[in-house]
Design goal:
This protein has helices at residues 6-9, 25-36, 67-81, 104-128, 161-180, 204-213, 226-233, and strands at 16-20, 40-45, 57-61, 86-89, 133-138, 186-193, 244-247. By secondary structure, the protein is an alpha/beta fold. The protein has one domain (6-248): Rossmann fold (3-Layer(aba) Sandwich), CATH 3.40.50.720. It has a seven-stranded parallel β-sheet, sandwiched between helices. Helix 3 packs parallel to helix 4 and helix 4 (104-128) runs parallel beside helix 5. The chain binds nicotinamide-adenine-dinucleotide. Nicotinamide-adenine-dinucleotide is lined by residues 20-21, 23-27, 45-47, 62-65, 90-93, 113, 117, 138, 140, 193, 195-196.
Length: 254
């Protein structure tokens, strides 16, 4: 690139993003973030969010654990837009109960969504385009470390063993595809957020206990991921691949 002008770096007007989990807490933020940069956003989710973002947002109801559905929707997007520039694998399931109560359905749903869903998407992309793309997987601090069970009360949503296992798998899958797709000008990276504040799902005691464990003394906000999203989606960072960036206020370093 000859002119490294900030306005060029931030110009996403001709780019198309495919984002899974677009109706979720982070999905809504990520959609709006890229829409504000001028990007077209295809939001793939099992559930439709009522709020309408912009004329550049296109919702597609898809269960990413279903290979056929995933492949068909990617084919449709590629045909319409000619190219897919960015893929963000954000959809996930986390059965937030004690592991002793875990049933087969929850185990299957978590693996099928978090691991197989991510593979389905990358496989579908490989078949229809193969090259020139920035893939960002969303991991979690619980793919890197265990939850501290002392901070959970009886009614709190405990991050599950299968969720953590699936997120560790995502970090590894990131490395696998980073190597495999490197010759096609595709970089594959992972963002692993710490706990994001959610006043509907978390109570005050939990928020306080979690925050006390974080050196920065607060839970994360969706905005905390902004620059990582920009970094990993930029063509200026093609030399960065297979990485897992933990964004957690220091939660995993102590
Ligand atoms: N919120 C956090 O504290 C936090 C922390 C670390 C990592 N993460 C990760 O960030 C990502 C987004 O988290 P979030 O808080 O927005 O989650 P969320 O539960 O609010 O949203 C997840 C979305 O994925 C969708 N989804 C689930 N299964 C699907 C399937 N089979 N096909 C299509 N869509 C499906 C859901 O309908 C939902 O809209 C997830 O990968 C999550 O593991 C979140």
């Amino acid at each position: 690139m000859n002119s490294l002008k900030l306005k060029n770096i931030l110009d996403y007007n001709n780019k198309t993003l495919v984002l899974t989990g677009s109706s979720g807490q982070l999905g809504v933020y990520i959609s709006n973030f890229f829409l504000n940069l001028g990007c077209k956003v295809y939001g793939l989710d099992k559930v439709k969010k009522k709020s309408f973002y912009s004329k550049n947002f296109f919702f597609k109801k898809v269960d990413i654990s279903n290979e056929k559905q995933t492949s068909e929707v990617l084919k449709y997007i590629k045909k319409k837009e000619k190219k897919i520039d960015i893929i963000i694998n954000g959809a996930a399931y986390n059965p937030v109960t004690h592991f002793s109560k875990r049933n087969k359905k929850e185990l299957t749903l978590t693996s099928n969504t978090n691991i197989i869903g991510t593979i389905n998407l990358i496989k579908a992309f490989y078949k229809i385009q193969k090259n020139n793309c920035k893939i960002i997987n969303i991991g979690s601090v619980y793919g890197v470390r265990s939850p501290d069970f002392k901070i959970y009360g009886k009614k709190d949503r405990i991050s599950s063993e299968i969720y953590g296992g699936s997120k560790a798998a995502i970090i590894q899958i990131t490395k696998y595809f980073a190597v495999f797709l490197s010759k096609y000008n595709v970089s594959v990276n992972c963002i692993s957020p710490g706990g994001i504040l959610n006043k509907v799902k978390q109570n005050k005691t939990f928020i306080k206990k979690y925050s006390n464990k974080v050196p920065i003394k607060r839970m994360g906000k969706p905005e905390d991921l902004s620059m990582a999203l920009l970094y990993f989606s930029s063509e200026l960072t093609n030399y960065t691949t297979g990485q897992n960036l933990v964004i957690d206020g220091g939660f995993t370093i102590c």
